[in-house]
């Protein structure tokens, strides 16, 4: 316990008043404090420790060799592969009912890729998955482009429900033609 | 000015089923007056080591039946107070652990004592 004459005691409660600036928080080093030895931190803001190690906040962050950083905060899990990555990859919630998976940026001028998932209430209509990227692929024996929004399916008749064989055949033909036009068959 | 004479330690005290009546069913280190075996009028306990403490166990430290301290070591601990525990001849120190007497390992308490030979009550008559 704090202030006790006894050493090496277990504690049941730790309260930290983390300063909003300066070297403050919980810091773990391995095997001992020193340059390049910071392995984890829990701070209210980013900074540099007395040994020259940069640390990230607010939130809990881990550090490994090569400069890799993982930050877990209230809204974001940010991961940086290291090597001076400009902006880390992130899994974050940016709104109620909305989350994003973001690639991050290697350096200036890089373009991110994102997957956004949005609930029905967030959209005010229908739940949505957004792909924001220059190109999208489905892995297979060969990379195939996932079609972006293609031509509307038309010519199905006034109703989708075919009441005659001719309407049914016509609908089928239109479907085949559409799939052909987008390269799926 | 104090003139301390170190009395060393009577040795390690191994915990056992409580015999004090204050910790029924649990482990207790009872440093009785006969165990301490110091009959100088006024003396002090200035250092204690506890070891072999079961994980999570905590002890209320009693001096003559009254609570004096509290410790919950992570396996072991060292007591290095700024103010030693004052004692009179015949006093007793007990560590009342909050674990049942069948718990292992058994805590070990080693206490160190000294007295101030300059005190009038300690001068041989």
Structure summarized in a few sentences:
The complex is a heterodimer of chains A (185) and B (125). By secondary structure, chain A is mainly beta. Helix content of chain A is 11%, strand content 29%.
What layout of secondary structure does this protein have?
The complex is a heterodimer of chains A (185) and B (125).
Chain A: E1 26-29, E2 38-43, E3 47-48, E4 54-55, E5 59-63, E6 69-72, E7 76-80, E8 89-95, E9 98-102, E10 114-118, H1 120-123, E11 128-132, E12 137-138, E13 144-145, H2 165-181
Antiparallel strand pairs in A: 1-2, 2-5, 3-4, 5-6, 6-7, 7-8, 8-9, 9-10, 10-11, 12-13
Chain B: E1 4-8, E2 13-14, E3 16-17, E4 26-31, H1 33-36, E5 42-51, E6 59-63, E7 66-71, E8 77-79, E9 85-88, E10 93-100, E11 108-116
Multimer state: heterodimer
Output the helix-strand order of chain A.
EEEEEEEEEEHEEEH
Counting helices, strands and paired strands, the structural category of chain B is: mainly beta
Shape of chain A: elongated
Biggest β-sheet strands, sense, barrel of chain A: 9 strands, antiparallel
**Average pLDDT number of chain B:** 96
Termini separation of chain B comes to 20 Å
Beta-strand content bin of chain A: 25-35%
Strand content of chain B: over 45%
- CA gyration radius of chain A, whole angstroms: 27 Å
Number of strands of chain A: 13
Protein described:
The complex is a heterodimer of chains A (185) and B (125). Chain A is mainly β. Chain A has two helices and 13 strands. In chain A, strands 1-2-5-6-7-8-9-10-11 form a nine-stranded antiparallel beta sheet. In chain A, a hairpin with a 5-residue loop joins strand 3 and strand 4. The longest helix of chain A has 17 residues, at 165-181. In chain A, 9% of the residues are buried. By secondary structure, chain B is mainly beta. Chain B is built from one helix and eleven strands; from the N terminus they run E-E-E-E-H-E-E-E-E-E-E-E. Chain B has one helix at residues 33-36; strands at residues 4-8, 13-14, 16-17, 26-31, 42-51, 59-63, 66-71, 77-79, 85-88, 93-100, 108-116. The longest helix of chain B has 4 residues, at 33-36. Chain B is elongated, with a radius of gyration of 15 Å. The two termini of chain B are 20 Å apart. Chains A and B meet through loops of A and strand 7 and strand 8 of B.
């Amino acid at each position: 316990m704090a202030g006790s004459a006894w050493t090496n005691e277990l504690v049941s409660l730790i309260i930290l008043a983390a300063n909003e600036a300066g070297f403050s928080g919980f810091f773990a080093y391995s095997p001992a404090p020193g340059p390049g030895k910071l392995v984890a931190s829990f701070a209210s803001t980013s900074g540099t420790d007395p040994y020259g190690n940069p640390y990230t906040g607010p939130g809990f962050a881990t550090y490994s060799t090569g400069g890799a950083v993982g930050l877990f905060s209230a809204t974001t899990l940010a991961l940086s592969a290291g090597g001076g990555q400009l902006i880390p990859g992130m899994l974050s919630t940016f709104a109620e009912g909305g989350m994003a998976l973001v690639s991050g940026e290697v350096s200036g001028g890089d373009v991110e890729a994102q997957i956004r998932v949005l609930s029905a209430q967030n959209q005010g209509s229908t739940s949505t998955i957004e792909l924001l990227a220059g190109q999208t692929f489905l892995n297979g024996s060969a990379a195939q482009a996932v079609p972006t929004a293609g031509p509307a399916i038309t010519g199905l008749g006034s109703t989708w429900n075919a009441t005659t064989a001719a309407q049914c055949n016509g609908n089928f033909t239109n479907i085949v033609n559409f799939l052909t036009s987008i390269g799926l068959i | 000015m104090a003139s301390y004479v170190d009395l060393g330690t009577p040795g390690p005290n191994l915990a056992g089923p409580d015999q004090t009546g204050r910790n029924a069913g649990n482990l207790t280190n009872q440093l009785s007056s006969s165990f301490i075996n110091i009959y100088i009028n006024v003396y002090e306990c200035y250092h204690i080591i506890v070891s072999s403490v079961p994980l999570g166990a905590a002890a209320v430290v009693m001096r003559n039946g009254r609570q004096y301290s509290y410790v919950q070591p992570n396996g072991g601990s060292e007591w290095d107070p700024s103010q030693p525990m004052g004692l009179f001849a015949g006093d007793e120190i007990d560590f009342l652990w909050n674990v049942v007497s069948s718990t292992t390992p058994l805590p070990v308490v080693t206490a160190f004592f000294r007295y101030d030979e300059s005190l009038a009550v300690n001068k041989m008559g």
